[in-house]
């Protein structure tokens, strides 16, 4: 019996596998199932209410397949003539119009049915619905089908004589969306469609007038050239008594100003000829005094895109004229200038100041039609924030096009720094930053700007820091005022220190010569006495050093003024914050060594990776030793230089995974191929899977070639795991693991073929026999995977300098174990959280993780509105972390951090992977729950 079992076992292990050629890929055609017809069964309804309910239920099932629409439309059209209720007939027509938008439906049949209904319908409301549905159906047919479109337009023109305003409005909308510029009747008479639309701008109903203007705008959106003569009609519509008409007129004037900017027209008062864009600009500016907030906001938003306006019209928008007793009131400077030029005695009296003034008729004074005069002043002082925001955007856009206008508008923009709405203040700060290349700030302007640094909003302060780093200052007093304001900002809000340091660096770079005159005062340099050495831990002192050191780049005469301790502090800051402190030539040996070593770090990284080229020729102990040294060197390089830290960390993680696999293979060979399911095998495999998951989740810019190396490393770990399970696991566990393994191998094979990547020897050995194998054939899987273990060799990882890692910086809260946050047990409290996340594409995968002392864990999804996009890959999160817990006996720390959800990786459905990956070191906060007070 024993001999028989031995013979059977030997036979099983000596099984010969013949590799069969891959079958030819066949094209599999799937026949679409026959669609069943939808039966509305409208005839079974006893009253109109039942019919309406049937139609509403059917409307909720849309969309349906295009082939099913024909039967449904037929049922609705058949029942239409039997329905007496107007609202039900309108719902029928509306459903037909919605079905005409579905792909695959017979639009011609729908149009013919609706046209027949339109010829017999008497209700104006239903006629308007039919015309609207015809418009939807007409937009879905191709433009080459001119006969159908011509028929629809001809019918709409005929119905323009209807007495109902709604029918006329719908017909005008159809003409604007479907008609061409010219219309020809059956009698051969040609009409200009734009003339027809212009005639309806004088209609008695405001909705019809608005529809005619909207139809002209639809012409422009469809690429049809608008006639210049429409401009006169649009100007007359600016005084329409309905809001929608004035809104459409403003848009139409804006469109015509872009189409015919250089065309000259006669001014209204019969004076000089004006360019159309100048006149249109003045007309739109005049609408800034409209009674409707929507019209004012629309006019303010359209002004910014009129870049070809003459400078004299632009300058008028900032000239606000005051009226007193129906006369223009002169400013104080104008009165002083007039008094000086008159040459009168300085008695406080004026010659003939008591002469009688001309009598003015109140009806002859026009206070409303002011044109462009003071338009932006009125817009920036509007009571609605929508108007102020739109006016600020347009003012900034126009100022960015002209340096002269930038200088004139800077006072108006700076005045908006004191607005009560935070959004307006932010917009004003960003607007001033956009035109900073055209302006130089004075001291009186800077006083208003620096007041923003005391704002409670962290976003406003951060934006102000960025703006101050970009603007140009006029005098050294301005620079000194900025430094003092930044130091005051540090004292009020210590969490702003990094933003303050960046601002101080940029101010120094932009104003080196102004800073030179302030160096003795800023660094407390005395010509005769030695001053005490400042504390390097003081953020205010570091702020001053950032300003001085960055100014010294463009002003070498500043270097001899530095004291000995200032040079020592420079060396320390240059090593700890190289991104903020520049490289200065101080002729010191220490600095030269630091600079040279920093320049050679990139070469050291290349040298570390290049020594791994011939690892497959070395024995396992040497390979392990080299990999350990390389991983250690890369970890050190990551801490030395920020510019190569992401590349070094990415390479280090990959090589660490290779090191773990190599150690496992060395242990297997040392034990003669015996593997167990002990922690000595499972723990390293889990570590490898965690490393590869982190590489695929946190790093951006990894190429497909590098991604293939990472996934082939995963395949090596999964192969070792499969061998352990097959040798020691249960049958169910073996089948489950084999299914996961084959699934991953197939996904990897498709990935390599799609990207035309040549796999390594180990992967090639597995794909050929196992690519299309059933997971139930465990003997074949065991044999192939066992023989493939000999082919596992560590591979090199190319250096990709485009790689970026997702990083998180928690600004608030900071770790504090001195004072505790107290709240009643069972209730909630909020902890402010301010975080900057860099190198992230989708913020939806970011979660807030709270770890409690009793090992409870809470995951919070931040509200999307709490995210603020700073750049395409940089985001800011400002929110409240709501925590709650039961009663504690003493204060205990909780940990708050950010984690990222791991996206599903193809083929790793049942493998053990972490659900979330930590992005930063947790912040510890001391929390104390108090017993709730009972009434």
UniProtKB/TrEMBL annotation:
Coiled coil: none
Transmembrane segments: none
GO cellular component: integrator complex
Protein name: Uncharacterized protein
Region (Disordered) location: 325-356
UniProt keyword annotations, A-Z: Nucleus
Domain INTS4 8 helical bundle, residue spans: 605-785
Domain Integrator complex subunit 4/Protein SIEL C-terminal Ig-like: 810-931
Basic and acidic residues bias: start-end ranges: 331-341
Gene Ontology terms: biological process: snRNA processing
Cell compartment(s), UniProt: Nucleus
Entries under InterPro entries matching the protein: ARM-like, ARM-type_fold, INTS4_8HBD, INTS4_C
């Amino acid at each position: 019996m024993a001999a028989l079992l031995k013979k059977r076992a030997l036979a099983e292990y000596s099984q010969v596998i013949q590799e069969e050629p891959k079958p030819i890929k066949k094209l599999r055609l799937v026949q679409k199932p026959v669609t069943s017809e939808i039966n509305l069964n409208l005839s079974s309804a006893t009253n109109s209410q039942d019919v309406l309910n049937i139609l509403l239920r059917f409307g909720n099932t849309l969309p349906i397949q295009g082939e099913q629409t024909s039967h449904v439309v037929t049922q609705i059209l058949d029942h239409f003539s039997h329905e007496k209720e107007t609202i039900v007939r309108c719902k029928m027509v509306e459903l037909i119009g919605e079905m005409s938008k579905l792909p695959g439906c017979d639009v011609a049949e729908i149009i013919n049915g609706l046209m027949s209904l339109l010829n017999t319908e008497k209700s104006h409301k239903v006629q308007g619905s039919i015309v609207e549905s015809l418009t939807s159906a007409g937009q879905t047919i191709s433009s080459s089908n001119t006969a159908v479109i011509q028929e629809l337009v001809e019918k709409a023109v005929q119905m323009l004589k209807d007495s109902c305003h709604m029918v006329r409005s719908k017909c005008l909308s159809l003409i604007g969306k479907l008609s061409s510029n010219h219309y020809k009747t059956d009698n051969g008479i040609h009409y200009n469609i734009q003339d027809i639309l212009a005639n309806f701008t004088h209609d008695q109903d405001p909705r019809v007038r608005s529809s005619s203007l909207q139809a002209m705008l639809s012409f422009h959106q469809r690429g049809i050239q608008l006639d210049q003569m429409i401009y006169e009609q649009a100007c007359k519509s600016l005084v329409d008594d309905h809001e929608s008409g004035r809104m459409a007129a403003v848009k139409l004037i804006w469109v015509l100003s872009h189409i015919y900017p250089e065309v000259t027209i006669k001014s209204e008062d019969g004076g000089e000829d004006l360019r159309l864009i100048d006149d249109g600009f003045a007309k739109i500016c005049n609408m800034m005094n409209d009674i409707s907030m929507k019209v004012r906001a629309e006019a303010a938003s359209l002004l910014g895109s009129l870049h070809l306006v003459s400078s004299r019209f632009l300058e008028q928008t900032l000239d606000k004229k005051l009226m007193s007793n129906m006369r223009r009131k002169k400013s104080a400077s104008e009165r002083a200038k007039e008094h000086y030029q008159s040459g009168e005695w300085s008695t406080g009296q004026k010659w003939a100041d008591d002469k009688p003034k001309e009598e003015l008729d109140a009806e002859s004074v026009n206070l409303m039609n002011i044109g462009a005069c003071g338009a932006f002043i009125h817009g920036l002082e509007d009571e609605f924030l929508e108007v102020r925001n739109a006016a600020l955007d347009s003012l900034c856009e126009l100022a960015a096009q002209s340096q002269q206008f930038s200088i004139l508008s800077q006072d108006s923009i700076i005045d908006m720094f004191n607005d009560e709405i935070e959004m307006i203040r932010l917009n004003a700060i960003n607007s001033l930053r956009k035109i900073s290349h055209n302006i130089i700030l004075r001291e009186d302007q800077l006083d208003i700007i620096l007041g923003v640094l005391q704002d409670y909003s962290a976003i406003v302060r951060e934006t102000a820091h960025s703006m101050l780093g970009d603007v140009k200052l006029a005098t050294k007093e301005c620079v000194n005022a900025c430094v003092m304001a930044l130091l005051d900002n540090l004292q009020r809000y210590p969490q702003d220190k990094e933003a303050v340091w960046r601002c101080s660096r940029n101010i120094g770079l932009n104003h080196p010569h102004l800073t030179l005159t302030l160096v003795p005062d800023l660094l407390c340099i005395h010509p005769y006495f030695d001053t005490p050495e400042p504390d390097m831990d003081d953020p205010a002192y570091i702020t001053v050093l950032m300003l001085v050191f960055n100014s010294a780049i463009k002003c070498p005469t500043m270097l001899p003024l530095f004291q000995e301790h200032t040079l020592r502090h420079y060396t320390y800051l240059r090593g700890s914050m190289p991104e903020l402190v520049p490289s200065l030539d101080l002729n010191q040996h220490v600095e030269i060594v630091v600079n040279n070593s920093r320049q050679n770090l990139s070469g050291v990284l290349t040298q570390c990776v290049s020594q791994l080229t011939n690892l497959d020729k070395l024995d396992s102990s040497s390979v392990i030793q080299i990999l350990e040294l390389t991983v250690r060197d890369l970890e050190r390089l990551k801490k030395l230089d920020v510019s190569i830290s992401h590349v070094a960390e990415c390479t280090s993680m990959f090589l660490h995974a290779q090191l773990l696999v190599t150690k496992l293979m060395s242990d297997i060979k040392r034990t003669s191929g015996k593997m167990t399911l002990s922690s000595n095998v499972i723990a390293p495999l889990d570590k490898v899977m965690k490393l590869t998951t982190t590489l695929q989740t946190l790093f951006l810019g990894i190429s497909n070639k590098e991604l293939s190396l990472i996934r082939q490393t995963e395949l090596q770990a999964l192969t070792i795991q499969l061998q352990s399970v097959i040798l020691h696991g249960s049958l169910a566990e073996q089948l489950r693991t084999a299914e996961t393994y084959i699934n991953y191998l197939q996904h990897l094979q498709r990935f390599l073929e799609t990207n035309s990547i040549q796999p390594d020897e180990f992967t090639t050995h597995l794909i050929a026999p196992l690519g299309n194998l059933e997971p139930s054939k465990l003997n074949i899987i065991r044999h192939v995977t066992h023989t493939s273990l000999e082919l596992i060799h560590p591979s090199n990882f190319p250096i990709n300098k485009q790689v970026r890692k997702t990083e998180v910086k928690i600004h608030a809260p900071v770790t504090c174990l001195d004072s505790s946050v107290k709240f009643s047990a069972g209730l909630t409290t909020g902890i402010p959280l301010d975080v900057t996340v860099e190198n992230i594409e989708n913020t939806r995968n970011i979660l807030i993780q709270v770890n409690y002392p009793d090992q409870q864990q809470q995951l919070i999804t931040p509200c999307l509105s709490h995210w603020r996009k700073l750049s395409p890959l940089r985001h800011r999160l400002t929110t409240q972390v709501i925590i709650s817990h039961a009663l504690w006996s003493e204060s205990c720390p909780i940990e708050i951090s950010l984690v990222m959800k791991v996206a599903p990786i193809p083929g790793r459905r049942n493998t053990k992977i972490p659900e979330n990956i930590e992005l930063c070191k947790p912040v510890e906060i001391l929390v104390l729950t108090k017993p709730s007070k009972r009434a």
